[in-house]
Amino acid sequence: MAAALSAGRRGAARALSGPSAGRGCGDAAGWGQRERSYWRALRRRVLGPPAPPFAAPCQVGAPVLRGAAAAVGPEQMGGPELRELAAALAAGLRRGPCLGLSAPQLGVPLRVFAAELPPALCQQYPAALRRAHRIEPFPLRLFVNPVLSVLDTRLVTGPEGCASVRGFSAYVPRHWAVRVSGVDEHGEPVSWEAEGWAARVVQHEMDHLDGILYIDRMDTRTFTNVSWMELMD
C-alpha cells in the first residue's frame, strides 16, 4: 500500500508538473500550457504538488484513470494507509455528493471502491426514475479487491454521470443484478447482491478499477452537457 501510494504521488507530481498539465480549453492535443496565477504559483511552491489520495476526483485525461488498478496485498489489510484511503473515499462520496468512488479516481491505483446512497439523496431523483430503475437507499459499503459476478444478464439502459467526467452524462447499458464480493479495509469478508440502480453503481465502479469509464460504454448519441440549457440561455 505504501509503495502504491508513493507511486501514485510520484505519478501525480509528474502529471501536474509536466506539459500535459497545461492543456487549455479546446487544446485536445495538449500543446498549450496553462499559466498559474501568482498566488496559485506561490502556494504550489510553498506546499508542493497535492499528493494522493486527493480531496477531489481526478478528471478524464489523468493517466491513473486509464490503467488497471493493482490488488491490495494481504500484508496491507488493516494498515494505516488503507484506512486513510477508506476515509478519503467516504469523505469524497459525501463531499460530491456522488454514489460511488474508486481509489484510482483519487489518484491511488489500487482495487478499492466505496458506494453509498443516503435517503435524502435518493429522494432527489424523479419518482418515475426511482420506480423504473429501483433506486433505493443503501448504506456506505467499501470493497477491497472486489470480484463481480452477474446474477441477471438483462441489460437495462439508464443515465449515468461520473465525478471524473464532470458536467456530462449519457445513457449506458448495465446488467440488472450483480454480486460483488471482497474484503473491507480491515480484511473482513464482505459481499453485496445489488439490483437496479445499486447494481449500476457497482458496475460503474468496477469499470474504474480496470481503467474503463462510462464514456467507453455509453450510447454516444445521448452524451450530454448537463448545463447545456443554461449555457444556451
Any overview of this molecule?
By secondary structure, this protein is of the alpha+beta class. 31% of the residues lie in helices and 25% in strands. It is built from 7 helices and 6 strands. Strands 1, 2, 3, 4, 5 and 6 form a 6-stranded antiparallel β-sheet that branches. The longest helix has 16 residues, at 2-17. The protein is globular. Mean pLDDT is 88; it is low at 2-29.
Regions with little confidence, pLDDT below 50 for 5+ residues: 2-29
Strand content: 15-25%
Over all CA atoms, what is the radius of gyration?
Answer: 18 Å
The main sheet comes to: 6 strands, antiparallel
Mean pLDDT: 88
Q: What is the total tally of β strands?
A: 6
- Determine the number of helices (DSSP H or I, runs of at least 4 residues): 7
Amino- and carboxy-terminal Cα gap: 48 Å
Structural class: alpha+beta
Helix content: 25-40%
Overall form: globular
Quaternary organization: single chain
Q: Sketch the topology as an H/E string, one letter per element.
A: HHHEEHHEEEHEH
